[in-house]
Specification:
single chain, 505 residues, alpha+beta, Cytochrome Bc1 Complex, Chain A, domain 1, 16% strand
């Protein structure tokens, strides 16, 4: 009786999801959107939602780890950490004196860096002298900093959710405010891009080195994924870890960071999305006043490097005294490619949750895996990317067993069409996730989720209106499409495999 109830409940959820998707009024949402492009290239998208006196603000920079310069890997991630350190107007006890001390700090660091880069030829006495002077200069400049001044101001003005994130393709800053604080947001956010002060940069660099140790170097999953990523891309910068290489992080200079900022964090490479209880006309007037101060700079070019077609399977074995795990990647097209919805559908049916082919086989029936999951958008999608599968063997079982079961599941879907009723369930799940929770900030049911998605679609597809045609792409997927992409992309020559074996077993 219990199993029938579970099946009934699952079926009911699918029906409700489909109903919600078709009931969602995209026309009303689309008609509530206004847009403006300033002379300096800044794109501003405004959606009116007058349900409550609040608004969410998103600044989407079309720059991420993929754009990091050589010897400065992880620099885009650094700007996530630097996001709310303040400006010349906010965050300093004495900005003139602080800028002088920052210049001294920079000079000493560049001397220290030059000496370190001599390697074995470095003068140890000179290194010790410079390190002492550099540390003293760092502390002197920090004495004039008002810590967390930006965040505390936002808190006082009723703001919530102040945050930022960096990925391979983007850097995004966001928070929400009462709707009568639009001008405050315009002043603060535009000032960060108009006259940034990269204060506390060297202190924050130390935070990032510790983050790298904790997330990547000390965690089996982090180590395995970093190796899989580097192995999957021989040419394209998607293969470089987004947090950066340790030696590069330690080598950052404020001058190099400023050059990167001046190239990528310019109005023509930004999209601002504002959703909530706002009046578009007033928003655009304020945008002209505050954001219009920033001079025009050309839009940076896309990465020209193309990953060459993989000619054969690549494998790596790591050892760690931990829970074994394995990862597999397959090269797939970029997120806007016509095959992308079918690839998403394939991954969902193969390993997307408790009803998937591999979960039922490996976790429920054979019980040789504790975890099996995967994603076609685990890394990024602006450029051709990878689909990734992860498995953790159960006690008494091995990575090799899990690997074989994964290949059997893929082969089954390459040789057999998915039943039509299952294809409809896949689409229903995709549509439900897209509307209710698939996007950043909560999907299309929240101001922040809508702002995120509008900015993302404008940046990724060139037109925010494509947000409202996404369901058409999902609906167009057929069982034949899913089988075709399984055969085309999920092949032996196109895959990369990493085993993390238990070193003590």
């Amino acid at each position: 009786m219990k199993s029938k109830l579970v099946l009934f409940s699952a079926g009911l959820l699918i029906v409700l999801s489909v109903s919600a998707a078709f009931a969602f009024d995209f026309t009303e949402l689309e008609n509530a959107v206004s847009e403006r492009t300033l002379d300096n290239g800044l794109k501003i998208i405004v959606m009116e939602r007058h349900d409550a006196p609040v608004a969410s603000f998103v600044t989407w920079a079309n720059v991420g780890g993929v754009d990091d310069p050589k010897e400065y890997t992880g620099l885009a991630h650094m700007f996530e950490h630097m996001a709310f350190k303040g400006t010349e107007m906010l965050g300093s006890k004495n900005i003139e004196e602080e800028l002088k001390l920052i210049a001294v700090e920079d000079s000493l660091f560049m001397q220290l860096r030059a000496e370190r880069n001599k390697g074995r030829m470095a003068d140890s006495a000179r290194l010790a002298e410079l390190e002492e002077a550099y540390d003293a200069a760092r502390e002197a400049s920090f004495e004039l900093v008002v810590p967390n001044a930006y965040g505390e101001l936002i808190d006082r003005e009723g703001g919530v959710g102040l945050n930022a994130f960096t990925a391979a393709d983007m850097t995004v800053y966001f928070y929400s405010l009462p709707s009568n604080k639009v001008e405050l947001w315009m002043a603060l956010e535009s000032e960060r891009f108009f006259k940034p002060v990269l204060r506390e940069m060297y202190k924050e660099r130390d935070v990032i080195t510790e983050e790298r140790r904790m997330v990547y170097e000390s965690r089996p999953f982090g180590r395995a994924f970093e190796e899989l990523r580097c192995m999957s891309f021989k040419a394209h910068p998607y293969g470089v870890p987004g947090i950066g290489h340790m030696s590069d992080i330690l080598n950052y200079s404020r001058e190099g960071a400023k050059e990167f900022f001046d190239k990528y964090y310019v109005p023509s490479n930004l999209v601002v999305a504002i959703v909530g209880d706002v009046e578009p006309k007033k928003v655009f007037e304020l945008a002209e006043e505050y954001w219009g101060r920033i001079p025009y700079s050309p839009h940076p070019e896309r990465i020209a490097t193309v990953e060459p077609e993989q000619q054969g399977e690549r494998r790596m074995i790591l050892e760690d005294p931990s829970q074994p795990l394995m990862m597999i990647s397959y090269h797939i097209p970029d997120a806007q490619h016509p095959d992308n919805p079918a690839i998403d559908a394939f991954m969902d049916y193969l390993c997307g949750g408790r009803t998937s082919v591999l979960y039922k086989s490996m976790v429920k029936e054979k019980k040789n895996a504790l975890v099996i999951q995967g994603s076609a958008d685990f890394l990024a999608g602006k450029y051709p990317t990878i689909a990734v599968l992860l498995a953790m063997p159960a006690q008494g079982h091995t990575n090799a067993e899990c690997e074989q079961d994964i290949y059997e599941g893929i082969k089954f879907l390459q040789e057999n069409l998915i039943p039509d009723e299952d294809v409809e369930k896949i689409k229903a799940r995709a549509k439900s996730a897209f509307i209710a929770g698939g996007g950043f900030g909560g999907g299309l049911n929240s101001n922040l989720g809508l702002a995120m998605q509008l900015a993302a679609y404008q940046t990724d597809t060139g037109n925010w209106r494509n947000l409202f045609t996404e369901l058409d792409r999902i609906n167009a997927v057929t069982a034949e499409d899913i089988q075709r992409v399984a055969r085309e992309y999920f092949t032996q020559d196109n895959r990369n495999v990493v085993f993390m074996n238990n070193a003590e077993s």
